Amino acid sequence: MNNLRYKRRKMIQKVMFFFSVASAFIGIAFLFLILGYVIYKGAGGINIDFFTKLPTPVGVPGGGMANALIGSFYLVGLASLFSIPVGILTGVYLSEFGRGLFASAVRFMAETLTGVPSIIIGIFAYSVVVISMGRFSAFAGAFALSILMLPIITKSTEEILRMVPESLREASLALGIPRWKTILKVVLSTAKSGIITGIMLAIARVGGEAAPLLFTAFGNSYMNWRPDQPIASLPVQLYVYAISPYEDWHTKAWAAALVLIGIVLMTNIMARIYAGSK
Amino acid sequence: MGKSSSNKELRWLFNKDRAFKGFTALLALILLLLVIGIFFKLILSSRLSFGAFGFKFLTSSVWDPVKGIFGALPFIWGTFVSATLALCFALPLSIGIAIFLSELSPLWMRQPVSFIIDLLAAIPSVIYGFWGLFVLAPVMQIYIEPVLAKYLGFLPLFKGYPLGVGMLTGSIIVAIMIMPTISSISREVLATVPTHQKEAALAIGMTKWETIWKIMLPYGRSGIVAAVILGYGRALGETMAVTMVIGNTPQISLSLFDPAYTIASVIANEFSEATNELYLSSLVELGLVLFAITLIFNAFAIFLLWKMKKFEGVRT
């Protein structure tokens, strides 16, 4: 009787463990299914033209996505100009001075802002920048992306700075070095690799965003270098091509997907390896 | 050097300290003002629509841009149903993964497996959508939905014509996307369970599974709930992937095969085409609704996580 009950409990354990292992397997399988399919469909579309040529009209063979590729780097670069320094220094504030209600409020807002759907940030950028400028622009897109990057960089910087041992700060202060210099020269430089990892993860995250760019940076079939003009980006162009009815555009969209997934995953993996090696 | 001059020097240094602190605090203020700014800007820009429809906006199911009548109900329905369904798929899998990684997996597998699962979260939404549209939707249409219709067709959930794109496919895509969020937080939560708790359970004769199910999961309950809410919030706001596979039809249908529409999707599709002020304002009001919903869910999850971390003595 007891033996039977024991067997039953063992049985439940077996079933549940099987399920647990299976779910890990399913998770891994999905990554490889998606990755594999994107490589399978996209590899054929990758050539020099893809990286160097502008898109051609439907039906005209050839062409590439140079404008979107450069546009994506342009947007993320422009966004970084604001969000990296502000994010790092906000992280510094939270970790080095951040006690009390104000700091808790900022921390709370950073957490919430990470969870706000990126399309909402797009609406905000639209109503603040696009409406006042009167047109879609690279600046509006970068504005949206920088809002997405800011809380990620802030949080990761704070986390990393808290791991810098207190004794380092004390040693520096004991030498008579003022606090601000201690933070800039000792604390920040000790945590440099961790901060860079955080920045790379933030870049990988917003580099794949299409939603906040749909009605801010909009899109452009030509190369654009001016911040006050609409600009193409890889995710948006990929989206437009993917939902189009043209076979030729689908082929290009798969190539774009492969390039995008490659850049994003490589940035991610590099950031983690870099963080792990230090 | 006299005493007064070195004092002066010291004061000068401390003033710089204060200036530095003030400067960083000022930059920190930006974050605070941003969230408040987004909130007010959305309220301000949706005034027109709120003035025209009032609270009926939330309960009306007519969305007719041509006639200028806007009701949000089908979108709210689509958003909640797709996110809830996605959570139903993702929750058992995520918890299963968390248990695997924290308890079952051999040590050498732990890091690579959690790394791979985390990479799932890094894939851009638009690529999920693209894959969903060209791979998952046809598979659903040809293989899975007909089988569901055949055996479970008596339920209203599985009535109708299998289109491939629709509520069910959309939810599955979202489930894959939120799985890493839930599983990685749950794994961290499970790691906080003290060893003596586990050992005590094993010592009184519990099986390993019973220890996990009756001791570890209840111990980390609030953290896991927080993980689930965070995942749910993400599911509610997911945009590009959903837009590409959910079918984009503003209707309230019980059938999971039918196309649906979510708040984020309608904004993505129609925002840059909104031809008049009222149309645009209605879309912004939809955005406000989504913002408010995700804000509430997020705030609750953060509150739970903070409380837990305080309890654990872990510094965030």
List keywords for this structure.
heterodimer; A: 278 residues; mainly alpha; 2 domains; B: 316 residues; MetI-like fold; flat
Description:
The complex is a heterodimer of chains A (278) and B (316). Chain A is mostly helical. Chain A has 2 domains: 2-45; 51-277, Orthogonal Bundle (MetI-like fold). Chain A has 11 helices and no strands. Chain A has helices spanning 2-42, 48-52, 66-97, 101-115, 118-133, 138-162, 166-174, 179-190, 192-207, 234-242, 247-277. In chain A, helix 3 crosses helix 9, helix 3 (66-97) crosses helix 10 (234-242) and helix 9 (192-207) runs antiparallel to helix 11 (247-277). The longest helix of chain A has 41 residues, at 2-42. Chain A is globular, with a radius of gyration of 24 Å. The relative contact order of chain A is 0.14. The model of chain A has no long low-confidence stretch (mean pLDDT 93). In chain B, 47% of the residues are buried. The longest helix of chain B has 43 residues, at 3-45. In chain B, helix 2 crosses helix 13 (277-312), helix 4 (73-104) packs parallel to helix 7 and helix 8 (195-203) runs antiparallel to helix 9. Chain B folds into 2 domains: 3-45; 73-312, MetI-like fold (Orthogonal Bundle), CATH 1.10.3720.10. Chain B is 77% helix and 1% strand. Chain B is flat. Chain B has helices spanning 3-45, 47-53, 56-59, 73-104, 107-122, 125-152, 167-191, 195-203, 208-219, 221-237, 240-245, 263-270, 277-312, and strands at residues 63-64, 69-70. The model of chain B has no long low-confidence stretch (mean pLDDT 91). Chain B is mainly α and 316 residues long. In chain B, strands 1-2 form a two-stranded antiparallel sheet. Chains A and B meet through helix 1, helix 3, helix 4, helix 5 and helix 6 of A and helix 1, helix 4, helix 5, helix 6 and helix 7 of B.
